[in-house]
Write a structure and sequence with these properties.
- The protein is an alpha/beta fold.
- The chain has two domains: about 120 residues, Aspartate Aminotransferase, domain 1 (Alpha-Beta Complex), CATH 3.90.1150.10; about 230 residues, Aspartate Aminotransferase, domain 2 (3-Layer(aba) Sandwich).
- Helix content is about 40%, strand content about 15%.
- It has a seven-stranded mixed beta sheet with strand order 3-9-8-7-6-4-5, with helices on both faces. A three-stranded mixed beta sheet has the order 1-2-11. Strands 10-13-12 form a three-stranded antiparallel beta sheet, with helices on one face.
- α4 links the parallel β4 and β5.
- α1 runs antiparallel to α10 and α3 crosses α8.
- It starts with 10 loop residues before the first strand and ends with a helix.
- The relative contact order is 0.17.
Amino acid sequence: MRVIDPPASPVVLKNGKSLIMLGSNNYLSLSTHPDVIKAAKGALDIYGTGTCSSRLLSGTTSLHVQLEKELSRFKETEDTLLYSTGYMTMAGTLSTLAGEGDVILSDQLNHASIIDGIRLSKAQAKIYEHSDMTSLEENLASCESDVNKLIVTDGVFSMKGDIANLPEIKRLADDYGALVMVDDAHGTGVLGQNGHGILEHFNMENQVDLVCCTFSKVFGSVGGAVGARKEIIDYLRFNSRPFLFTASSPPSVVATVLAALQVLERSPQLLRNLRQNVNFLRKNLEELRFKVTPTQTPIIPLLIGNDKKAFQMASQLEEEGVFVNPVVPPAVSAESSLIRISVMASLSQNNLERALEKFKLVGKRLDLI
């Protein structure tokens, strides 16, 4: 674990050394936005540091209710339920809604929170090949016609940065009588004309049964939420053990997310800046002849294909003043080891150009380009 301060800024410090940060999920740089920080400080003054209770006892404030309403509007769902972490959102929703005798169909590269939620649910798991709609249909066809079926997928896959084929998933779900749940953790604030996420990206608002998001990426904090029909949210509110038996999010955290959402909606330039930075960095990495996996998101994977070299590249880039994350087994297969670059809107042109110089230097040194 590399100790860095502060971890979600364009330039960070590690052991007193400045590093250009290309490893944070703070895509719109909202965790350091002055309006967001002001809102968090204001909530601390009013509410203190925490609720010291679960939501159903004395842990619900007007801020919690307001954020649930705002997210329902933002995601165009009937109702929304907050969880204290993004992991709990996925695991808690799946383990509550599905059970023995049900079938959950899950993409091969879904996040660990989805995998663990399926295990906790005790439903039958059918894993389809990553983004392979033929594999998904074969698994759907193998189910008994009258069994409850739920297809669950990441919206943006966190290691490779690719986007789920949600229109085709929805078509197959309708054909085979399945529900659809999407984890929009890395798509919220990033995809769609206004940053509303994967449903806006595909013009599929109100067409998915459950849509989840986390607050530890674009919203610059911690926590998560699930949006769905009111009857589903009501069921989760009174039956989801990870929701019932944990302390509610501190009001300062809720205020942070509310303020971040407001800044996102009134500042379209942030999303434009992010996309410009992503396009510039990807284009130049491709021109340097790195193996760049095509994506439409701020996650840019450089395929290395060797875990030792992936660690070497991350280490040598750090020595040169650039922070990146190596991704190796078990997060990916051995032949798919990669450097995961994640881009922020607040990175300056100088930051990006200097980082590219170091990628070129280290890439040549390791015979990667």
